[in-house]
Amino acid sequence: MSCQLHRQSSRSRHLCQDAKGNANSSGEEEGDEEEEEEEKKADKIDEPALKDYSDSISKKLPAAPCARALRMDLVSCYIPDHDKDDHFVHPKAGFVSVVDGVDGYREYGVDAAAFAHALMTHARAGVNPVKRGKITAPVTPYNLLERAYLKATRACTQGGSTAVIVSLHESKTLRPCLRWACIGDSGFAVLRVGKMVHRSKKQQSCFNCLFQLCSFRGNRLVDADVVEMRVAEGDVVVLGMDGLFDNVLDVELQWVVEKGKELGLSPQKMADKIAAAARKMAGNWRAPFSAESGRSVQNGRKRHYDRKFDDIVKLSTIVGT
C-alpha cells in the first residue's frame, strides 16, 4: 500500500470457549459495563514515549519543504492467496493500516484470518476522536491499536496477527509528522526525492518467529514500535507485510518508486508495479527472506527459498491542496 502527502486548507481454545459461555450468560448490560471498564483501563495506560527520527534523517537529506497542512492520497493493490490479511484506510482522519494473520494457527484448526479481521473491524470503528465531556481525546496509532486489541481479546478471538497503523498528524511544533505503531513484520517505508529515508524494523525473537498479538500467550502491546518523524509534500509511504518486504530488497523498492515518479505513473500504477515486483521475486535466492534464512542455517535451521505471494501493498503520497 502506498500513500502520498498533499497540502490541505484546513492461547487455549477451550479457555476461550468457556469465557464466551460465561460472557453470554452474564447478560448484555454486564457486557456493556465490562467494555466500558476495558476502555477506561486503556485510557489509563500510558502510550510509550515517541521516538523521533527526524533529526537523523535531516542529516542525510536536504531539509524537507514545509507545508501548512498535508493529507494522504491513498491507493492499494491486494494479491490474495490465503486471504488471512486485512487493511483499512481512512483518508479524512489520515489513518492507514495493514495486518497479517499468523498462518501457523491453521495447523491447530484455527481460522488464521480471525484475529487480523477483528483488529481491523475494531480499528475502523475507533478512528473518530473520543469525546469526554467538553474534551476531545486525540486518536493515535498506538491507542487505536490498543483499543482494537482489547476488544478482540475480550471476545476471545482465536488466532494471532502482526500489525502496523500509520497516521498523519501535526507535531507539537505544528509541523506535519507521520506517527506509527508496528508489531511483527507488518511494516512500511518512507521515500523522499528518490531515497529511502525510513524503513520499519521487523520484530522477531529469532528467524521467522515473529512478534504477534493474540488472545493468549502473545507478545505485549507495549512491545510495539511507536515512533514519529516529520514528513513533507511529495513523500511516498509504502505499507505492506511479509509478501512485500520478505521478497523485495530496499534498493529495488526505491528504484521502482523513483522510476514511477520519473515516468509520471499514478499512485495506483506505482502500487501495482511494487506488488508485481514482490510476486516476481518470491522464492528468489536473492530475496531478503531467502538471504536471512541462509544466515540462520549457521544455527542449525533449515534454509527456505519459498515465500508466499499474498500481500497488500498500500501506497500513500503526501500531497498538498
Q: Which key terms come to mind for this protein?
A:
Phosphatase 2c, domain 1, single chain, six-stranded mixed β-sheet
Taking the sheet with the most strands, its summary is: 7 strands, mixed
Categorize the overall geometry.
globular
Oligomeric assembly = single chain
Q: What is the succession of H and E elements?
A: EHHEHEEEHEEHEEEEEEEEEHHHHE
GO molecular function, one term: metal ion binding
Domain PPM-type phosphatase: 69-319
Catalytic activity: O-phospho-L-threonyl-[protein] + H2O = L-threonyl-[protein] + phosphate; O-phospho-L-seryl-[protein] + H2O = L-seryl-[protein] + phosphate
Biased composition (Basic and acidic residues): 39-51
Précis, in short:
Belongs to the PP2C family. By secondary structure, the protein is of the alpha+beta class. Helix content is 32%, strand content 29%.
Characterize the structure shown.
With 321 residues, the protein is α+β, with helices and mostly antiparallel strands. It has one domain (2-10, 49-319): Phosphatase 2c, domain 1 (4-Layer Sandwich). It contains nine helices and 17 strands. Strands 2, 4, 5, 8, 9, 14 and 15 form a seven-stranded mixed beta sheet that branches. Strands 1, 3, 10, 11, 16 and 17 form a six-stranded mixed beta sheet that branches. A hairpin with a 5-residue loop joins strand 8 (160-170) and strand 9. Helix 7 (250-262) runs antiparallel to helix 8 (267-281). It is globular and about 50 Å long. The chain starts with a strand and ends with a strand. Mean pLDDT is 75; it is low at 5-20 and 22-26. One of its GO terms (molecular function) is metal ion binding. This is Protein phosphatase. It is an enzyme of class 3 (hydrolase). Belongs to the PP2C family. Residues 27-38 have a biased composition (Acidic residues).
